[in-house]
Amino acid sequence: MTSPPARYHILHETSYRYESPVSLSRQLLHLTPRYGRWQSCLEHRISVSPQPTAERERHDCFGNVVRELALQFPHDSLCVCAESTVEVASHLPREVAAALTSAGSAAAAGSARSPGYLSASPTWESVRDALAYGARPVLLDAACYQFESPHVRVKHEFAAYARSCFTPRRPVLEAVQALMSRIYHEFEFDPEATTVATPVLEVLAEKRGVCQDFAHLMLSCLRSQGLAARYVSGYLLTHPPPGQPRMVGADASHAWVSVYCPELEGGRWVDFDPTNNLLPDTQHITLAWGRDFADVSPLRGVILGGDAHDLEVAVTVTPLAEVDDESLALP
Questions:
Q1: SS3 string of 98-137?
Q2: How many CA atoms lie within 13 A of 327 on its CB side?
Q3: What is the 3-state secondary structure (H, E, C) of 166-205?
Q4: How far apart are CA 299 and CA 309, in angstroms?
Q5: Counting Cβ atoms within 10 Å, is residue 36 exposed (0-12), middle (13-18) or buried (19+)?
Q6: Mean pLDDT of the chain
Q7: Contacting residues for 330 by C-beta, under 8 A, at least 6 apart
Q8: What sign has the CA pseudo-torsion 109, 232, 241, 310?
Q9: What is the rounded CA–CA span in Å between residue 270 and residue 258?
């Protein structure tokens, strides 16, 4: 028996304060949670201050909802607030979910060690060969996630790092879990060690970074093995210390990876979180996915003017049961 769906209220606030007025701004927003087999966005709104001159909504090539903004007048600040109510159902394999249910309070990381589902996947060599170019149908859903992208490299250094996990004839999901576990145990979470521009080869050498770095590293290792893997951005429910209230803005955006695993029915994408060494389930809320962070940055764009600026980002993820009905209502 699987666990009931989890419902969350999510507040994602981004504020720019410019040193001098910006005369023109164009922005792309990936702030709308995805719909999927296990996730539904029940309510959603994005408010912008000052009011944009023009805006529109569309889907990008990965199926993510994108909001485009244009501000064609002088302004010295930009505030974007995305507010959502999301329901996430358990999507762990049945064997894993059953193990967790019977274990009661077992740690989520234990789900990644379920031998049945992981060991039942096809060998990693057969998956690599199925994805390789040849006189066979192309797996379009996976093909674009095999190659280098702005933040992900396909190089022998990454293949060498992953080699001990990808032993001959090993089931692909078992090998990916081993790689995830190795990154978790050998790399240190350090928010001061990297920036969004830090090359992934430097992350490999220094063995420290944040969730975005670990996702890019794992993607580089997987793609260097010839596998298809995509970058997933979203949110992770964090728990305050016992007896302490949940702090507004204490949560942050999160990132993990999703690996393509062919099956008789066509294939599935299986998520892995190297920062926490677990298979994501109801505690992970999916915002968008792409080749790497550059494809799904929550807010990016170009401005004319502005000089220096101050940026503040605050994310609050709250279980719906903890939210007062009046404060949750979206007008």
A1: HHHHHHCCCCHHHHHHCHHHHHCCCEHHHHHHHHCCCCCC
A2: 9
A3: CCCCCEHHHHHHHHHHHHHHHCEECCCCCCCCCCHHHHHH
A4: 15
A5: middle
A6: 87
A7: 43, 44, 45, 83, 85
A8: positive
A9: 5
Place of tokens 């996702």: 215
Cα→Cα distances 171→46, 56, 125, 129, 231, Å: 43, 44, 9, 14, 22
- The alpha carbon torsion through 93, 96, 98, 99 (nearest 10 deg) reads 180
Lowest mean pLDDT across 174-178, 192-196, 227-231: 192-196
- Are 183 and 217 spatial neighbours (Cβ–Cβ below 8 Å)? yes
What is the C-alpha to C-alpha distance for residues 268 and 265, in angstroms, rounded to an integer?
9
Q: Which of 236, 171, 228, 242 has the alpha carbon at shortest distance from 210?
A: 236
The pLDDT confidence band at residue 132, using thresholds 50, 70 and 90, is confident
Count of CB atoms situated within 10 Å of the CB of 188: 9
Pairing of strands 54-59, 65-71: antiparallel
CA 63, CA 285: separation in Å to the nearest integer? 16
Distance CA 117, CA 125 (A): 18
Cα–Cα nearest to 279, from 131, 171, 126, 177: 177
Q: What angle do helix axes 172-186 and 211-224 make, rounded to 10 degrees?
A: 140
Q: What is the largest CA-CA distance in the chain?
A: 61
Q: Which residues contact 59 (CB under 8 A, 6 or more apart)?
A: 65, 66
